Amino acid sequence: MKSHIVLVAILSSTFGCVTDTPTTPDGLTPEFAVAGSSGCYTVSGTIQQTGMTGSFTGTISGDVVGTVTTQTQVTASQGSVNLGTGQQTWQITGGIIEPLIGSTVRLELRTMSVFAQLPLVQLNNSADIIEGAAMGSLTYHGTLDVSSVPFTPTVEYQGVICL
Fold it and tell me: Could you say which of 55, 95, 105, 140 has the lowest number of CB atoms within 10 Å?
């Protein structure tokens, strides 16, 4: 019994003295420079558009700057929730991803609109890049104001774009 206790004590002190073990989570938190050196960029910002149901144009700002067009269609409805699909096109004129400036990025959308508190419709969308970059995935959260025509959706986007 004593030999087992001594063995555990020796192993504990040996493994407990490793000095290169991270003591804070800082080494696990990606920073922009780390993400950029891998060819992937963490991005966030705002998309503001105007238009009629299913067809919108506007601007994108934040880490990606330019113009945006969106086409959507409802594919299912249940109560006050509409689910849909769509396409979005970004004409990039500026931002933090210099190789994308001057290019066009196309995204495939999955949309969810909640009509519980009209005239504001809650938007919770996601998108995958299908052209213009190697890959990327984004989420969008915001509102669509249907109190006047043309409608004015404003969403915050965030995600990752890889070259």
Answer: 55
